[in-house]
């Protein structure tokens, strides 16, 4: 049963740990109502935004920068250089490094990639990956292994990954990720579960995962969150966002 208690606000604890908000959102290349999209992101007050289907073509950097500015974020990494995934962050984040990774291309299928970064919030240090996995089952499963490898290669005490998995929780790829990482919704359900579609929510194909040392304080679709309206959620894009509050221990 999901809780409707408001998510904790971002803060730094006395022991150096950090409470952060993380939003994962497929924005469909900003082809819908970008004003509604920016309002949803801003209302969620995230410290990190894991974007899928960021603009990839004509003036893509300018479009992504415009969204970041309108939603109170800055661009961290990704976009066309990661084949769609991107990372945005608030001014709370101290950035150590970023890298855009292109995954192996299967002939005839869409190119996929990962937007990655290592960031710090106070004394808490973590790796971050935004992903959008394949529509094809076998390729998707292979990509999940590459995602786990890349998460480990960031070599940070704690890490999180999120994105559009194109698969439900009972699928092999989702199950593989949930075996190695915490599925944040399953760990601390909050809000609502289903992310697709905004007009008919009936399946969870978007998720945020965290390594075991991170405490999940709540995770789900932010229905009922202050400032987030159903009208904006329906107008912004063809997916619903996933919002998580996490406590990351000091390094």
Describe this structure in words.
The chain is an alpha+beta fold. It has helices spanning 34-44, 60-70, 137-153, 172-180, 184-187, 230-236, and strands at residues 11-12, 18-26, 48-52, 74-78, 86-89, 94-102, 113-121, 124-132, 158-164, 182-183, 206-210, 215-220, 242-248. Strands 1, 2, 3, 4, 5, 12 and 13 form a seven-stranded mixed sheet that branches. Strands 6-7-8-9-11-10 form a six-stranded mixed sheet. The termini are far apart.
How do the strands and helices of this protein lay out in sequence?
Layout: E1 11-12, E2 18-26, H1 34-44, E3 48-52, H2 60-70, E4 74-78, E5 86-89, E6 94-102, E7 113-121, E8 124-132, H3 137-153, E9 158-164, H4 172-180, E10 182-183, H5 184-187, E11 206-210, E12 215-220, H6 230-236, E13 242-248
Parallel strand pairs: 2-3, 8-9
Antiparallel strand pairs: 1-2, 2-13, 3-5, 4-5, 6-7, 7-8, 9-11, 10-11, 12-13
Helix pairs in contact: 1-6, 3-4
What is the rounded Rg? 16 Å
Helix content: 10-25%
Biggest sheet descriptor: 7 strands, mixed
Shape: globular
Ends distance: 32 Å
DSSP helix count?
Answer: 6
- Topology pattern, helix = H, strand = E: EEHEHEEEEEHEHEHEEHE
Structural class: alpha+beta
The quaternary state of the protein chains shown equals single chain
Give a count of the beta strands, DSSP E runs of length 2 or more: 13
Unreliable parts? none
Beta-strand percent range: 25-35%
If you average the pLDDT, what whole number results? 97
């Amino acid at each position: 049963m999901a809780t409707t208690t408001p998510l904790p606000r971002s803060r730094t604890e006395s022991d150096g740990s950090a409470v952060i908000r993380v939003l994962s959102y497929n924005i469909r290349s900003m082809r819908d109502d970008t004003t509604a999209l920016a309002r949803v992101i801003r209302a969620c007050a995230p410290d990190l935004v894991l974007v899928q289907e960021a603009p990839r073509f004509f003036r893509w950097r300018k479009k992504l920068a415009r969204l970041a500015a309108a939603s109170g974020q800055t661009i961290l990494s990704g976009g066309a250089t990661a084949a769609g995934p991107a990372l945005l962050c608030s001014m709370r984040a101290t950035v150590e490094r970023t890298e855009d990774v292109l995954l192996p291309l299967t002939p005839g299928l869409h190119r996929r990639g990962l937007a990655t970064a290592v960031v710090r919030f106070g004394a808490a240090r973590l790796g971050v990956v935004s992903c959008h996995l394949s529509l094809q089952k076998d390729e998707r499963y292979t990509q999940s292994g590459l995602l786990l490898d890349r998460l480990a290669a960031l070599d940070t005490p704690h890490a999180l990954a999120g994105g559009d998995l194109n698969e439900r929780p009972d699928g092999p790829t989702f199950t593989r990720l949930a075996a190695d990482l915490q599925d944040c919704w399953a760990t601390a359900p909050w809000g609502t579960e289903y992310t697709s579609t905004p007009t008919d929510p009936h399946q969870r194909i978007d998720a945020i995962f965290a390594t075991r040392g991170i405490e999940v304080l709540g995770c789900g679709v932010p229905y009922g969150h202050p400032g987030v309206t159903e009208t904006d959620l329906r107008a912004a894009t063809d997916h619903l966002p996933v919002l998580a509050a996490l406590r990351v221990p000091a390094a």
